[in-house]
Amino acid sequence: MDVTHLARLNAARLSRVAVVLVTDLETGTHRLVAEGDGFDGAITAAIASVFRSGRSGIVEANGKLFFLNVYLPPPRIVIIGAVHISQLLAQFAALAGFDVRIIDPRTAFATPERFAGIDLRVDWPVDALKKGKLDVHTALVAVAHDPKIDDFPIAEAIRTGCFYVGALGSTKTHTARLERLKAEGFAGAELARINSPIGLNIGAESPAEIAVAILAQVIEALRSRDATSPKGDKR
C-alpha cells in the first residue's frame, strides 16, 4: 500500500468514515473508495455490499477480478435513558460487537453500579453529543420516555443520518413526538425513519425480550443500510 492510501486510511479511521481499497488482481493497481463517494460502474453493487457486511473478499466485474479490502468504523449504539431495558441492551450489544454509550442526566438512574463497564454519560444529550457526535455508523435508541431527554437526540440522529433511529413509546406518545418534530421542520420521509414501536415485532414483553427485539432491529438496519450515500439509510 502506498503512502497516500495509508494517509487516507488513517484519516478515515479518525473521522469514522468507511473506506474500501479496490485492487485490480490482474494489474495490481489500487483505488481507495470512501462510503458516499458516489462510486459507479459494474463493481458498484459489490462495493456497497462490503460496506454493509464488513467482509473483504474477491469479486468479479466486467470479466476482471478485484480484491475489496474494507475498513469500517466500529458500529456504535447510543442509548438515551439509563432505564432497565438499557442495562440489558448494553450487555447484549457489547456481546454483538457494538461500542455502547448511555446518556441520561438523571443521577438516580445513571449510576456506575447499574452500568459497570459501560461508557455512561451523566449529562443532558444536547451537551453529551457535543463531545461524542452521532454519525452514519451509529444507532440511536431513545428509551428515556421523557421528551425533554429524548427529542433532541432523535432530531440530531435524523440530521446526521444515523443508520438506525428508534424510540420507545405508545402510539399516542409517538404521535405527539412527531408533531413536535414537525414543528422543528422535519418532513414525512425523515420522520418515517423513526422506528416506533421500537424493536422487531416478536411479541416482546419483558425488559430482556424488548432489549433483544431492539438489538435485532438495529442489526437488521446495519446490514441493509444504503451504503451508497454519505448520510446512510434514508428509508
TrEMBL record:
PANTHER family for the chain: ALDEHYDE OXIDOREDUCTASE MOLYBDENUM COFACTOR ASSEMBLY PROTEIN, MOLYBDENUM COFACTOR INSERTION CHAPERONE PAOD
Classification via Pfam families: XdhC_C
InterPro entries (alphabetical): MoCofactor_Util/Proc (IPR052698), XdhC_Rossmann_dom (IPR027051)
Organism: Rhizobium leguminosarum
All copies of domain XdhC Rossmann, residue ranges: 77-218
The protein's name: Xanthine dehydrogenase accessory factor
Lineage of the organism: Bacteria, Pseudomonadati, Pseudomonadota, Alphaproteobacteria, Hyphomicrobiales
Domain of life: Bacteria
